Amino acid sequence: MNTERPEEVVEETPEDAQTEVSEPEGVDAGVDPEAALAEAQAKADENWERYLRALAEVENVRKRAGRDVENAHKFALERFGKELLGVKDTLEMGLAVEGASVESLLEGSNATLKMLASTLERFGIVEVDPAGEPFDPEFHEAISMQPSDDVEPGSVVAVVQKGYTLNGRLLRPAMVIVAAE
Questions:
Q1: What is the pLDDT of residues 18-51, one digit of tens each?
Q2: Are 170 and 158 in contact (CB under 8 A)?
Q3: Range of the structural domain that residue 180 is part of
Q4: Are residues 117 and 134 both part of a single domain?
Q5: 23 domain-assigned
Q6: SS (H, E, C) 85-144
Q7: Does pTM surpass 0.85?
Q8: In which order are the strands placed within the sheet that holds 125-128?
Q9: Do 44 and 52 contact (CB within 8 A), yes or no?
């Protein structure tokens, strides 16, 4: 036989229960709701102004970068052009000399050619003159083949037109005649 008594269930009545009403989170009991709203609106307006300023700044940076790229394309050759003007001036002075001998004109032309070559090298333009070297289709353009006892088959026999590279990148291939087998 079970001698234990069942536990008593006690029910609370509405009069016994205490209801706690709490303020919404983030709102102080002593703060005026209208003042809080005005403060929140002021903060929202300030953030909106910051956003508009940031947006305008991004747009200005984009426009400035576009102008810089445009100017870089437009004036990229300015320094190169100034250097070439010296070569042109030298050629004009040589042609303006009256009664110059063939030797002096030849000497002036050679000096001008050296000046042009040094100007090109300063700007990274290097001559490709592959005479006697093996044919390289990346830098040479074969215009014909001819038998030769002087060089191995597949090598350059003669250079018809020199090629040029700009900082290692091909500007113009060398036009060559290649030794046939």
A1: 555 555 555 556 779 999 999 999 999 999 999 9
A2: no
A3: 125-181
A4: no
A5: no
A6: HHHHHHHHHHHHCCCCCHHHHHHHHHHHHHHHHHHHHHCCEEEECCCCCECCCCCEEEEE
A7: no
A8: 125-128, 163-166, 169-172
A9: no
